[in-house]
Model the fold of this input.
Amino acid sequence: MSTNPQTFQTFFRRCSALATLFCFSLPISGASALRSPNVTTISLQPANETTLALNPFDLLRGAIRYIQVANISDRQEVEIGQQINQRLLQRQYQLYTNPQVNRYVDSIGQRLVASSDSRDIPYTFQVVRSDTINAFATPGGFVYVTTGLLRAADNEAQLASVLAHEIAHINERHSIEALKRAAIAQGIAETAGVETNTLANLGYQLAVDLPRTRGNEYEADRVGLEILTAAGYPPRASVQFLEQLQGMSRRPEFLRTHPTTANRIEALSANLEATATSAPAGLSASAYQRQISPLL
Done:
């Protein structure tokens, strides 16, 4: 079959334009992406002689890579999350295996998930051994809370406020969006398809080393407050726990975020006015201490 040269040239120009458009949207420096893959805005850099000199088919491959990573499915996300979980438990944390405490934390987490506009993925809540006060979420519905945080909370409502915040991160796809940005910036996704093992390695690094963005934290606070209230817990517990942690002499790992704790408290307090405040659930300190007694 013969090919019209003019038609081919038109197709070639369109492919080059598409590829160049994607190149405009990606950071050039992989090193800076490693340091801060959670940035919410990416500076656009004008095309230069180097960019224009690239083979258009190389640019097109970059565009294809962008499309593939940007369309990670829920199934792929869960698979990536499972691999990140394996790495975390092999290299970073040890599971706390007391069945009473684990059942208790999972029951609170599943109650919050059921009360939220949750995604159609499984949610896994795990307690890990660490004296640091921390909790975090990874792609695929995995939520981690340290034994140090369980000890620091005064009651179930405070613990629920932390779990609701992490559920919100998952529901809003913050972890997977950060993973996409970092993967695209470093060009590690293969044009033949998304390599979940490679993405899991990057996701592990993000979970261990890097804080959330300011926008993600504020959104997780706001959505988490809604989840907490819908589950029947007093929304003020979230503010009370942050205030309690802020007063500690050593800043907990849980507060290692871009917004200052004071700003987060201020934003949460403003949102309290729009939520019901009569919910009494989870305020008993003695009932909470009975549930986590193996840790005390």
Q: What stands out?
A: The mean pLDDT is 78. The radius of gyration is 22 Å.
